[in-house]
Structure to design on (360 residues):
């Protein structure tokens, strides 16, 4: 799995070497003309004239090299980006007077709509099955996914900034390698996370779902994305904090550059920053691949039955050697009563093995 992640990252990075035949921004570029170097002979000035001619030849050679480089850039994948960086004045040539409406438009279009999808749909949630019924849980009960929230976070930030700049200037910005790697890295993390989930569901040969994502309903956004089968985990916390910090830094830099109005507005992350984000994502995937292992199967079975068994109307428990009736209807969430046959068999098996209290 880790090798596959590395290969995917190397493939993504190699995109910077691909070429295109034509760039749309070529229509606004000025024609570059070069003049062939001429040899000047002056017998009256001797050595001085020869030295001047050599200097002129060097200057002409430098101009030719620069022109050749610009022509090569015009066929590269990032030719638009290169030109926008070299000529930022074209980006702000038709900007509107106020930034208020562009910000409101981008926030409504991207952020509000995105948050609506996040909370009202399964956009950022994992699949989760109720062990007692073997049915997919209701949408609001499914836990939030760490990897899906990561790509959602960066998509929200980048699309908001991108749409704002278009509303503000009428210009569609070329995306730099940092943005491509952030979006591609989030997508890769989500893809490999889904692959791990599917693999673990296939390994769950029993008809009772016992992955830690299935054991109980969602505990809330931050509890879900920070927790693995052992509870709150340090590697998920690290990944969350760095993504939040770099995301806020991205937006802050964008706002400052737009306010200045003299530069290409998207920040370029340094190699160590991209490496840190990549290592955090790789650490998350690495630890995720060890979740729901065979070594914790029995304990997860006990937890699945304990948390999803429908209680009797009145349970009898012993306290200080006296029997006291406890009304279990006071529980916040009452497990379903339509238990599957497989679930009942699993519960009976665990009781017979002495792994569960017979009163449950």
């Amino acid at each position: 799995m880790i090798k596959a992640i590395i290969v995917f990252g190397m493939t993504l990075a190699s995109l910077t070497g691909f070429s295109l035949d034509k760039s749309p921004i070529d229509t606004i570029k000025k024609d570059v003309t070069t003049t062939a170097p001429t040899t000047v002979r002056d017998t009256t000035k001797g050595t001085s004239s020869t030295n001047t001619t050599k200097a002129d030849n060097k200057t002409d050679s430098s101009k030719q090299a620069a022109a050749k480089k610009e022509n090569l850039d015009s066929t590269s994948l990032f030719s638009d980006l290169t030109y926008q960086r070299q000529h930022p004045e074209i980006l702000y040539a038709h900007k509107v007077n106020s930034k208020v409406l562009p910000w409101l438009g981008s926030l409504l279009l991207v952020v509000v709509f995105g948050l609506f999808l996040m909370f009202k749909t399964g956009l950022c949630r994992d699949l989760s099955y109720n062990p007692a019924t073997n049915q997919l849980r209701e949408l609001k009960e499914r836990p939030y996914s760490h990897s899906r929230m990561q790509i959602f976070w960066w998509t929200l930030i980048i699309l908001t900034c991108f749409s704002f700049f278009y509303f503000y200037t009428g210009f569609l910005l070329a995306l730099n390698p940092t943005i491509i790697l952030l979006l591609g890295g989030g997508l890769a993390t989500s893809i490999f996370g889904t692959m791990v989930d599917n693999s673990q569901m296939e390994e769950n040969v029993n008809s009772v779902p016992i992955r830690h994502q299935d054991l109980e309903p969602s505990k809330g956004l931050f509890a879900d994305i920070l927790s693995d089968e052992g509870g709150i985990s340090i590697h998920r916390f690290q990944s969350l904090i760095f993504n939040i910090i770099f995301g806020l830094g991205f937006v802050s830099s964008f706002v400052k550059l737009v306010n200045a109005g003299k530069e290409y507005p998207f920040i370029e992350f340094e190699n160590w920053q991209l490496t840190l984000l990549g290592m955090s994502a790789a650490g998350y995937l690495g630890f995720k691949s060890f979740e729901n292992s065979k070594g914790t199967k029995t304990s997860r079975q006990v937890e699945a039955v304990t948390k999803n068994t429908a209680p009797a109307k009145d349970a009898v428990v012993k306290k200080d050697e006296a029997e006291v009736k406890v009304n279990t209807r006071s529980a916040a969430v009452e497990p379903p009563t339509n238990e599957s046959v497989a679930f009942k068999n699993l519960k009976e098996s665990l009781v017979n093995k002495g792994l569960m209290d017979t009163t449950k």
